[in-house]
TrEMBL record:
Keywords: Cell inner membrane, Cell membrane, Electron transport, Heme, Hydrogen ion transport, Ion transport, Iron, Membrane, Metal-binding, Oxidoreductase, Repeat, Respiratory chain, Transmembrane, Transmembrane helix, Transport. The gene is ccoP. InterPro entries: CcoP_N, CcoP_N_sf, Cyt_c-like_dom, Cyt_c-like_dom_sf, Cyt_c_oxidase_cbb3_su3, Cytochrome_c_Oxidase_Subunit. This is Cbb3-type cytochrome c oxidase subunit. It comes from Uliginosibacterium silvisoli. C-type cytochrome. Part of the cbb3-type cytochrome c oxidase complex.
Amino acid sequence: MSDFVSDFWAYYVGVAVIVSILACAWLLWIVSRKSPKPTTWDEVKAAGDGSGTTGHIWDEDLQELNNPLPRWWAWLFIITILFSFAYLVIYPGVGSYAGSAGWSTQKAYEAEKQAADAATAPLYAKFASLSTEQLAASGDAMAIGERLFMNNCAQCHGSDARGSKGFPNLADKDWLYGGTPEKIHESIAKGRRGTMPAMGAAVGSADDVVNLANYVLSLSKSGNDSAKAAMGRDSFAPCAACHGPEGRGNEAVGAPNLTDNIWLHGFGADNIISAINKGHASNMPAHEGKLTAAQISILTAYVGQLSNPVVTTASAAPAK
């Protein structure tokens, strides 16, 4: 895949664009030449040899004359070719050449975003000095927060914020990185990158992995084979580095609490065995830069109140 970001492709695209335009010009020159053959039906009929036609016949006697393009039409094509060369000088279009105007989709997006932020700044100004708790209690702020959530978060967490397999439920009181306003704000602004490495080789044989899966199930008092769970206890040692010796998780690294009955990546021995053998990787993108500081503050309050009627540091949900 690294070949697709090499300089070769920039040259390939550039050559393809230039050759295509020149080929169009050549084709235009070919079809625009004056034909020495008859150019009217009367002349074609008088010649009697079919000269001056394309040679194609439809419906037994319908023939197409082989005349050059009208001059006005040919000039329109010439103008489009000249326009294409001017466009490629000013704007990007030939490989990696950026164009003399310096225009790019990224710059256009940033300019439009700045204009939109400036236009909505007065709307957010009245919320700038409010705390998370005050924002959560404001109907206007939460109406804005809902729209921000639908536009930026619902794609992964769902419109009801209850998530799905691999995407956390934001409406319960279970938090991977902590449920305080500060932690929620940090998650939204900076993003999160969670990784569980494949641990199958560290655990041992396939039987050892099955035993460990049963031990993990036993931590939450879920259905398990008690004999296998007992044999899997010692195999949990590599997992304790992140999940803790009792399996209660670690919000510093986003390690889930294995003693509750909430399963982010699916419940059951098969899902746990797959997680041990293959690991998991998840990424929540950072919204800092995409959203303004005021928008992130309102979104923090909105997400927090989904599981806490009043979001306060003291009453925040326990970390998962």
